[in-house]
Amino acid sequence: MLKEKIKQLAKAYHQDTIAIRRHLHQHPELSYEEVETGKYIAAKLSEYQIEHQHGIAENGVVGLIKGKNPDKKVVALRGDIDALPILEVNDVDYKSRNEGVMHACGHDVHTSSLLGTARILHELRGEFEGTVKLLFQPAEEKAPGGASIMIREGALENPRPLAIFGQHVHPPLEVGKIGMRPGKYMASTDELFLTVYGKGGHGAIPQECIDPIAITAQIITALQQLVSRQGDPTIPSVLTFGYIASEGGTNNVIPNSVSLKGTFRTMDEPWRADAHRRMKKMAEGIAESMGARAEFTILNGYPYLINDDVLTAATRKYAVEFLGEENVVDLPIRMTGEDFAYYSQEMPACFYRLGTGNPAKGITSPIHTNTFNVDENCLELSTGLMAWLAVRELEE
């Protein structure tokens, strides 16, 4: 059976996939700087004799694996390739050699998995019909997101897939399991920048000042109430300010200005646009009413990610076939964001979570931390499962 052949090849290539993952982990590159990573991926595809194009979105790579009757149907598989500006503290042989840069979000796993999957599919290309498109995508971690650039530069054309799959490491889920959720799954991600300009002075004589700290406090409270009281309660929304700083203030000095940075996340595009307008109007209006001035800038980030109901139901069925019912779990909505969302707005998509945790081995650190790591047994499952999802979807 094809499923057993895929499992055998995933097992046979497991150590090679681990070696690829460790090489990538040792040599991480930030978003839009993945020059050597792109070259490495292209070299591996050349080694496997897989047709590919290097240089999409500068450092991205697009590959094609053509089975029998290649024009019958096309599906796409995506792996992101960039790292984060984090100083790794793990004591492992494959620790990052690029100080201050780390694969702390598992993109080394995503990339090595997709290379392993590509190798499996290429070897079995005579046993399935259709074409598998491989998207090795840069710059997931930084706006505007490499996915948007890949799409703009034609990565989804010639040939155009009818569906796309992506996977992401998930430390809370033990290795050997995967999780998914149909429908709206991850939030849009907007960045907020607010500066309130007042009039500084002595903290003991506030009547001679226009206190931007007091005004900013009212703005923050009002904005939180806007989201919780004016938004539809059935639409998940989050407003968080994670940075606040003043210019020149101290214990007894009222500053001239206060700056904020925050994020707004939701899962409805009309409400997203309306909330932007309302937040800006409210912040500027409150400041003006108190004699101050506010500048509110909103940087639109990724859209919300939606897993196609039909494709995700099929994906769950395929995954159960490959892993067993007990190893496929349902996941809750997440207010984190992912630029895979751009693909999900273009075509039926399924973005699922790969279990990478192992408490017995002490592998429990969350993503985006300086101690993040994975149980590398996940790489046998990740390569085999993604290959299976591709061939099963091509059969449908």
Describe the model:
With 396 residues, the protein is α/β, with parallel strands linked by helices. It folds into two domains: 2-186 and 303-395, Aminopeptidase, CATH 3.40.630; 190-299, Alpha-Beta Plaits (2-Layer Sandwich). Helix content is 35%, strand content 25%. The protein is built from ten helices and 16 strands. The model has no long low-confidence stretch (mean pLDDT 97).
What characteristics describe this protein?
396 residues, alpha/beta, Aminopeptidase, Alpha-Beta Plaits, 2 domains, eight-stranded mixed beta sheet, 10 helices, 35% helix
In short:
This protein is of the alpha/beta class and 396 residues long. The protein has helices at 2-12, 14-26, 35-47, 107-123, 146-152, 212-230, 269-289, 309-323, 341-344, 378-395, and strands at residues 51-56, 60-66, 74-80, 131-137, 163-174, 178-180, 183-186, 190-197, 201-202, 237-246, 253-254, 257-266, 293-299, 305-307, 328-330, 349-357. A hairpin with a 3-residue loop joins strand 1 (51-56) and strand 2 (60-66).
Q: How many beta-strand runs? A: 16
Strand order of the largest sheet: 1-2-4-3-5-16-6-15
The CATH homologous superfamily of the largest domain is called Zn peptidases
Radius of gyration, CA atoms, in whole angstroms: 24 Å
Cα distance spanning the termini: 17 Å
- Beta content: 25-35%
SSE topology sketch:
Layout: H1 2-12, H2 14-26, H3 35-47, E1 51-56, E2 60-66, E3 74-80, H4 107-123, E4 131-137, H5 146-152, E5 163-174, E6 178-180, E7 183-186, E8 190-197, E9 201-202, H6 212-230, E10 237-246, E11 253-254, E12 257-266, H7 269-289, E13 293-299, E14 305-307, H8 309-323, E15 328-330, H9 341-344, E16 349-357, H10 378-395
